[in-house]
């Protein structure tokens, strides 16, 4: 079997084609990351006039700071809850839509729309729905005898941001789960049904293992999403409150850096957050991927 190889008339053409992406990566990714690493070992005043080298003192202060340790705990609960909720609901929707024939495209389009909404808009939407004064969901919960107030109750606040963040990500997960379900040969499912396997038996023994590559991919993406891309949701709903109950790591970086003007500590938090995400990704690919059936 012969393989075709692309040839260019000019040697500089491949580099010219790669140049825009390389420039974007350097300007918007490599340069900010290098600046975070540089500022994480410095301490400077709020006006940036006096700067001193402190080494790893910013990191040591963070690891002994009760507020930062609480933020790590909050981030863990938030990331796991958001990932579990968004993936489970998306899988349920994908299973239901996959059984449809005529209206499949219509429901797919409707379920994809929320992904086009910005995170901050999603946060504002759910903030209005659960507003203690004018929210329709709050009114319905009061009719059931449940008093909702995410401004004063830490559990309510965490539930609100988890619902808002998961709702934003369900569309993304739904598309991949639906594509995975449509790639499963229908003959396998029919053979299992002929052998006497019921719907739940077919799902756990056949469909779910065949969806493991998609599930593994979405697990990595959703954890990274919950730890990085949910800043707008937190900022629009609870602003980290009440009493630091929803102050996840990425939002604490913003509060300490842009509001508290503690740039050294904020940069150190950015480095730690980056290392945590890298570590989680390595663990997932190193250990969890072994159980994935390709």
Automatic annotation (TrEMBL):
<keyword id="KW-0813">Transport</keyword>
<dbReference type="InterPro" id="IPR050809">
    <property type="entry name" value="UgpAE/MalFG_permease"/>
</dbReference>
<feature type="transmembrane region" description="Helical">
    <location>
        <begin position="12"/>
        <end position="31"/>
    </location>
</feature>
<feature type="transmembrane region" description="Helical">
    <location>
        <begin position="76"/>
        <end position="98"/>
    </location>
</feature>
<protein>
    <recommendedName>
        <fullName>sn-glycerol-3-phosphate transport system permease protein UgpA</fullName>
    </recommendedName>
</protein>
<dbReference type="Pfam" id="PF00528">
    <property type="entry name" value="BPD_transp_1"/>
</dbReference>
<keyword id="KW-1003">Cell membrane</keyword>
<dbReference type="InterPro" id="IPR035906">
    <property type="entry name" value="MetI-like_sf"/>
</dbReference>
<keyword id="KW-0472">Membrane</keyword>
<dbReference type="InterPro" id="IPR000515">
    <property type="entry name" value="MetI-like"/>
</dbReference>
<keyword id="KW-1133">Transmembrane helix</keyword>
<feature type="transmembrane region" description="Helical">
    <location>
        <begin position="267"/>
        <end position="288"/>
    </location>
</feature>
<feature type="transmembrane region" description="Helical">
    <location>
        <begin position="157"/>
        <end position="182"/>
    </location>
</feature>
<feature type="transmembrane region" description="Helical">
    <location>
        <begin position="110"/>
        <end position="130"/>
    </location>
</feature>
<feature type="domain" description="ABC transmembrane type-1">
    <location>
        <begin position="72"/>
        <end position="284"/>
    </location>
</feature>
<comment type="subunit">
    <text>The complex is composed of two ATP-binding proteins (UgpC), two transmembrane proteins (UgpA and UgpE) and a solute-binding protein (UgpB).</text>
</comment>
<comment type="similarity">
    <text>Belongs to the binding-protein-dependent transport system permease family. UgpAE subfamily.</text>
</comment>
<keyword id="KW-0812">Transmembrane</keyword>
<keyword id="KW-0997">Cell inner membrane</keyword>
<feature type="transmembrane region" description="Helical">
    <location>
        <begin position="203"/>
        <end position="228"/>
    </location>
</feature>
């Amino acid at each position: 079997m012969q393989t075709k190889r692309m040839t260019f008339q000019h040697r500089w053409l491949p580099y010219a084609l790669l140049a825009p992406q390389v420039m974007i990566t350097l300007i918007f990714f490599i340069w900010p990351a290098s600046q975070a690493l540089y500022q994480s070992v410095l301490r400077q005043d709020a006006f940036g006039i006096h700067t001193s080298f402190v080494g790893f003192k910013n990191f040591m202060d963070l690891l002994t700071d009760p507020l930062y340790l609480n933020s790590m705990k909050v981030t863990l609960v938030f990331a796991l809850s958001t990932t579990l909720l968004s993936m489970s609901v998306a899988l349920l929707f994908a299973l239901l839509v996959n059984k449809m024939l005529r209206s499949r495209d219509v429901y797919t389009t409707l379920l994809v729309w929320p992904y086009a909404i910005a995170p901050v808009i999603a946060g504002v939407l759910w903030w209005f729905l659960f507003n203690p004064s004018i929210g329709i969901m709050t009114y319905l919960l009061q009719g059931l005898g449940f008093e909702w107030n995410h401004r004063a109750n830490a559990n309510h606040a965490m539930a609100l941001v988890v619902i808002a963040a998961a709702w934003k990500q369900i569309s993304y997960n739904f598309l991949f789960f639906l594509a995975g379900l449509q790639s499963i040969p229908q003959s396998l499912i029919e053979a299992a049904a002929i052998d006497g396997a019921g719907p739940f038996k077919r799902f756990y023994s056949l469909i779910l293992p065949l969806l493991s590559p998609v599930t593994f991919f979405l697990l990595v993406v959703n954890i990274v999403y919950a730890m990085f891309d949910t800043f707008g949701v937190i900022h629009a709903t609870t602003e980290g409150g009440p009493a630091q109950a929803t102050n996840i790591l990425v939002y604490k970086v913003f509060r300490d850096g842009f509001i508290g003007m503690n740039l050294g500590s904020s940069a150190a938090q950015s480095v730690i957050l980056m290392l945590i995400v890298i570590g989680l990704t390595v663990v997932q690919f190193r250990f969890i991927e072994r159980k994935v059936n390709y």
